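STRUCTURE:
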């Protein structure tokens, strides 16, 4: 029996018997299960089988094989449609997953921005508090220095006043001692003979 490829090249000429046509048809039907392009060869051998049977004067064989081929093609089309639907569903799922991932990334980026803004606000608040504390410290130091300077000035004034009072007291004491000495000398002179007249003349000249 010729090979299926050679039989296909021959186009199913009448020299093939009905048995050979049926064998080739069955062979291509089997191949069409995994390779759909062989279905047309199975149909051609089915037609050739019917032609051989008619030439032999017999009734045409039932069209079961053709129906089987048609059914197989329909099943293949349905399978292809199901595969396409699955691919579309997979593509839609991928798109949804990509959209969800993008949304998640956007939410994560927004959360990170919020955290960064909060950290920056905390740093700024700490810097402001430190600046206020430094300003308060400097103000307190300046106030203390001013108070110290005022106290020093007041102490200097008090010291000067005390020195002036001491000087005046010393002068008053010296004057009092001089006056006392003069009085004592006068009293002694009065106690001597002729001392009164001498003291009187001295007092008048002074």
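SEQUENCE:
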């Amino acid at each position: 029996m010729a090979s299926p490829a050679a039989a296909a090249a021959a186009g199913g000429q009448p020299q093939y018997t009905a048995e050979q046509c049926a064998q080739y048809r069955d062979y291509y039907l089997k191949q069409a299960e995994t390779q759909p392009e062989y279905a047309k060869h199975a149909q051609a051998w089915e037609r050739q089988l019917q032609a051989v049977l008619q030439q032999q004067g017999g009734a045409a064989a039932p069209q079961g094989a053709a129906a089987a081929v048609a059914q197989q093609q329909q099943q293949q089309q349905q399978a292809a449609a199901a595969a396409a639907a699955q691919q579309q569903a997979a593509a839609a799922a991928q798109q949804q997953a990509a959209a969800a991932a993008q949304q998640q990334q956007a939410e994560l980026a927004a959360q990170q921005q919020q955290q960064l803004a909060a950290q920056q606000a905390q740093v700024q608040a700490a810097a402001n508090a430190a600046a206020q504390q430094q300003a308060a410290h400097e103000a307190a130091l300046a106030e203390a220095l001013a108070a110290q300077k005022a106290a020093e000035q007041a102490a200097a004034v008090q010291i000067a006043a005390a020195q002036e009072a001491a000087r005046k007291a010393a002068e008053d004491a010296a004057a009092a001692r001089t006056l006392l000495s003069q009085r004592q000398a006068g009293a002694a002179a009065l106690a001597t003979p002729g001392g009164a007249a001498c003291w009187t003349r001295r007092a008048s000249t002074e």
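REMARK: The radius of gyration is 69 Å.
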